[in-house]
Amino acid sequence: MHTTTILMPKKLLAATLATLVLGGCAIHPRPLTLEQRSATLQADQQAMFAEQTPVSGPITLDEAMARALKYNLDNRVKMMEEALAQRQLDLSNFDLLPKLTAAAGYTSRDNVLASSSQDIVTGQQSLVPSTSSERQATRADLGFSWNILDFGVSYYGARQQADRVLATQERRRKVVQLLMQQTRQAYWQAAGAQKLQAQIEPLLAQAQQALGDSRAIEQQGLKDPLQSLGYQRELLGLVLQLETIRDELAQAKPKLASIMNLEPGKPYQLAPPASFDTPELSIAPEKMEEVALLHRPELIEASYNERIGLDETHKAMAKLLPGVELNVGTHYDSNDFLVNNEWRDAGIQISWNLLNLLNAGHIKAAAKAQYELAREQRLALNMAVLTQVHVAYIDYTSRKQQFELTRQLSDVEQRILEHTRNATQANAQGKLAEIRAATSALMSELKLYQSYAAYQGAYGQMVATLGLDPVPAAVASHDLPTLEQAIRDTEKQWAAPATGDASK
Length: 504
Hints:
By secondary structure, the protein is α+β, with helices and mostly antiparallel strands.
């Protein structure tokens, strides 16, 4: 009874300690506080716009594209993904090396590690208890091992990771190409907004004044009420159109600022060319299919994925082979009972998972299916690219024609406005005609910029569809002036005479 009484408190104490330890190790949800989120927000805002060259003057199209290329956050994410893939390749290369293992330790017992022997015939103890180990001992080991099977599997894994690095580079190329296309279109939309916003406010003021004059005439009864109300209805319709245009224009420059990663709400000016140049490609339509099939990032990435699938087949086959492991080591043990406290050894071990042989057919079939899937995906992508080339070229020529017609229409509207102003007399009806003509001319000019932006966007889409890069693979520097010059030189190369190869 006394022994039981002593053991029970010990068990209870152990259970209590275990409960406390487990309770202390339990993980509970820890929501972020408002102060933590606020601190993170401030740090993110500083990081988003840190280390950027400040805007020092009106931004040209080349500078806008260079800023998008250098500072756009989506592009920076792709660059970091590429760097991460390269780091993972470095780790995969280390897996090819043999394993060099170092170990050291100290052990201590509270009693002697002793043993005795038993006669297997009589079952009696044949020797007195004895020991060959000290109660305290220090040990150290340095081992070198190399598994040939692991090396083979790691070799194909490293080759796959190398192809993944290349595939990541192609995905970044695709992001850059689409980014340049978006920048082109957004730039000309913002350029139109910058020009037209300066014209819309005086016209709105003129319409509001004419509306006020008409209401005053109506109140004084100087004209037929129905005539005054009809006049006001038309003026209000024009004001509504102008307000809609103003709201639409107000969104253009913030969109471009987002692409260039400028601070939202920070004012900036654009310096577009004085005339609407018509961008041209020197690549003949019959050569565009070949250029796209050779340069499209998606197709090159698909080829890398096909190679990754082929190496997956090689890995599966390598895992079916027996593993051979070579071991070399040096050891030390401070145990004084040992005759040799230091020694070296070497060995070879062969292992083979025989169950893999039973599953060999399934393993090879799965690896082959993965390879064939990657190949079929590449072939399907080829067809999609060919279709995109034709669709993009049709859209490019169509947008070009629409722009030419829109430019002619805008010229007609401007001439109508000029003649209307010359013929306008100082009366309410004359003001309405002038406001109507001015609004129509403003809307036609807005459509002109929108059409030209769409034309530039179609041109950028054509360039991206062909897989052409806006800058060469190797650039002397990544500062803004160098990038701007590289973008200008590349675009000149695209527009070079057809005797040159603009795809290079």
